[in-house]
Please model this.
Amino acid sequence: MKKALLIILLIIICATLYGCSADSNELIIGTKDFTEQYILGYILALYIEANTDFRTTIINDLSSEVIFAGLRTGVVDFYVEYTGTIYSNYFSFFYPTTPDDIFNITSSTIAENYGLYMFSPLGFNNSYELAVQRSIAYSHNIRTISDLAVISPDLIIGSSPEFMRRSDGFPSLKRVYGLVFKDEVIVDHMDRYRAISENEIQVTEVFTTDGALLSYDLFLLEDDKNFFPPYQGAIITREGILDNHPYIQSLLGDLSGLITDAIMRNLNYRVDVLGEIPRYVAESFLKENNLIP
Model:
């Protein structure tokens, strides 16, 4: 109940600060609180502004629950969501199936329940994986999360606040695999890479499109019980926006399939490791693909 009230309060605050974009020439782009979302937010905003008469405003750093609720209530007009997040976290579906089936289930479920429209996936799958120090993987001969469960009582796991509480995150993962750690600590996204490299933690969750994976020598454990579903990135919006502006559906549909895992990982790398600005990384991607002048 407290969580629900907090979400409602945050939506009210966002609405007060930014207003709703209905009946205006402005579209609100939402993002969650990590690099990939910032880049994707700018890709949407710059692409829309270059090809329509709309202005855009970006609201950053929203949690998954808040941004999804914000879209439904009109505080946010567009954002990139992950199919597995809707499938497992919002609707608590856990039976394993194919990426296409999960997309079809999630897109039809949000349409029927909330009047939302999910575009075809952008092309990348940003799933969760558990990572350990490579030396631990080799010395203990562990390759899977099931292997990790044997030695987990001697290890410290560091994870993001959201992963620690999500229904498709740590609580259910522990139950499925029988994981019991020496300690469980909250560590922000990029800080987890530093912490594991300095042995403050020995296990963490990573996103498969993290740019930092190109710089840190970690061992990614096989999810041998298929706990994590596919997390294909896809734009979602309200059906009412497309009813009023049908050309936007065609416009944003042209982005589907353009961003592979490798491309997304490299875009994230440019920000997280090379220190480039998300807006400029997004702009260069759009120009390289002849999507903006």
